[in-house]
Amino acid sequence: MAESPAKALRRILDSPGVHLGPACFDALSAKLVERAGFDYCFTSDHGYQNQGSILPVGYVCCETMTVPYHDPTTQKGRRFSISAARLGLPDVGLISFGEMMDQGRQIIQAVSIPIIADGDNGYGNAMNVKRTIREAIRAGYAGIFLEDQVSPKACGHTRGRKVVPRDEAVMRIKAAIDARKESGSDIVIIARTDSRQAVSFDESLWRSQAFADVGADVLLIDALASREEMKAFCEISPSVPKMLVFHLLVHTDTIDMWLATWKVLSHIITLDWTDFNGTNLLEGGGKTPILNPTELEDVGFKIAAYPLSLMGVSIRAMQNALTAIKGGQIPSHGSIPTFEEIKEIVGFNSYYEEEKRYATNTDQVSL
What we know:
Helix content is 41%, strand content 13%.
């Protein structure tokens, strides 16, 4: 019997070392992540949001349903890579829960590695959280993030974040655990708190401990400000894996080049998206220090996510190509794969091989 996605992710979490995970934003970028040799992938930390910004007060959009919501505000999420890739729109709450799940299913079906979803703040109260978990399980996700921001919420690593009260934050995670049990699933629940910035570091430690106590599988404090804070975080509930998120843009021209460089060197100069005045800062200059994998493991982290890099290098590569074409030139030879490479990446060759299995004497088989 094939290993379930959640079981595969749990096996990774149980294995030695720190595990790096880039974030994809569509099926093709997920394929590139898998081809580069990574064991798992995130749907972009900046991508899905529901359509609460255009809903009546007191309601939140869940797929094709409009259901009552306890908070008399509208919803929006913190992610923008998938919103940008799918709709060409910014992170202002214009992509729906249904679109989120549809994109996720396409990504999951394109690869064999486990995929972790970004469940935002669960899209409402505890009952909304339970539905979010059930739909993520049905889609085939291996794990899912849940956070404690209020609604409407702020994009991660930006100003203006606020969190719900302690008891509500804990009940969100408990509801997620209950939904998992009721579904007979072992999906990995990653509990995130934004209270480090919104309240205090001590508050973020309290919430993380509380999340662990109700059964969260992985803990995440967003926007840790120093190595000392990282160490203190990793010391609570030592048996529960800790996660760190880096918001980066990398100065390379192609996704393949970036993935290869990251996989081989494991440590490259980056730009950190953690300055709240809108200025990109060099490595180490933002709120969350940039550590290489060895340093991350020494501090105590088990898993690290890089949500913006693939979207960033994709935008730059396309801009460079369009500039060349606009100027009457073609993109440089080294900046694009060969046609044969493209065919291999998107799956033409494997399709042709499988097609041969069903060929008849009258069929015209692709050559």
